[in-house]
Specification:
By secondary structure, this protein is mainly beta. Helix content is 11%, strand content 28%. The protein contains three helices and 13 strands; from the N terminus they run αβββββββββαββββα. The chain has helices at residues 2-14, 181-187, 251-258; strands spanning 38-39, 48-52, 56-64, 67-70, 84-87, 97-106, 121-125, 152-157, 172-179, 198-201, 218-221, 224-231, 242-246. The strands form two sheets. It has a six-stranded antiparallel beta barrel. Strand 3 and strand 4 form a beta hairpin. 49% of the residues are buried.
């Protein structure tokens, strides 16, 4: 079984050719946390999950009793991946509940170009989730629902902190404001194309951001799942905020696939 899981992990990793994506396999150091954030409890973000092959590779969000939303580049191309999700624990290595992924469904438009557009995947679990204080779904926005510029949001995950003294296994979070779309496009104009299925959140001076290992995790604004951690130029670099897949842009697709 271990050899099968390792093969699946390699297949998944091979799909991510866009260098600014934020899955675990692009981590430069073997520490894994939000940059510039703070240790938090799973009870504060009970929708947060760790997506795993034989170890943590990405984040994700519980959206229903048998469904998790993550990033398309976290899952590989197979619709029957060798993956599981751990939920209900602030430590990605122990505690909580681990459930196997029955089916992975990438957005059909993901991978049609090199921009990481439509960076979404829905994971159907092989059994229903029993909700508790530390395991709850997050609400979704309406189709094309807008978020006011400057809205303070929370991103969470087990991605790189770029600080070797940080505890490897503890969940962290950070507060970041949303950035006006035209400014986001301009900031990345010399690097990558920002589409209408993406949004930026962060600070002009940098210092606080999601990072490698946070991919697929939630950006929560006003108690709604507004974004999925997708990519960025480096991590927490000045002038380059985090870029998130905009959940409101694919709300109808989520409903069609999952019924949620």
């Amino acid at each position: 079984m271990r050899s099968i899981l390792l093969i699946c992990a390699v297949l998944g990793a091979s799909q991510a050719s866009f260098n600014s994506l934020r899955p675990w396999w692009r981590t430069e150091h073997q520490n894994s946390r939000i940059v510039g954030g703070f240790v938090t409890s799973i009870n504060k973000v009970p929708w947060q999950v760790s997506l795993r092959d034989t170890k943590h590779i990405c984040g994700g969000s519980i959206i229903g009793d048998q469904w998790v939303l993550t990033a398309g580049h976290c899952t590989g191309s197979s619709d029957k991946p060798c993956l599981s999700v751990r939920m209900g624990s602030s430590n990605y290595n122990k505690g909580g509940v681990e459930i196997k992924v029955k089916r992975s469904i990438r957005h059909p438009k993901y991978g049609i170009d090199t921009t990481s557009d439509y960076d979404f995947a829905l994971l159907e679990l092989d059994r229903k989730i029993d909700f508790t204080k530390s395991i709850k779904p997050i609400k979704l926005p309406k189709q094309d629902g807008a978020v006011p510029d400057g809205t303070m949001c929370t991103v969470s995950g087990w991605g790189s902190t770029q600080n070797v003294v940080d505890d490897l296994a503890l969940l962290r979070a950070a507060h970041v404001p949303t950035i006006e779309q035209s400014e986001c496009v301009q900031l990345y104009s010399n690097k990558h194309r920002v589409t209408d299925r993406m949004l930026c959140a962060g600070y002009a001076k940098g210092g606080i951001d999601a990072c490698q290992g946070d991919s697929g995790g939630p950006l929560m604004c006003r108690q709604l799942l507004i974004g999925v951690v997708s990519w960025g130029e480096g991590c927490a670099e000045e002038g380059y905020p985090g870029v998130y897949a905009r959940v409101a842009s694919v709300r109808k697709w989520i409903k069609t696939v999952s019924g949620i």
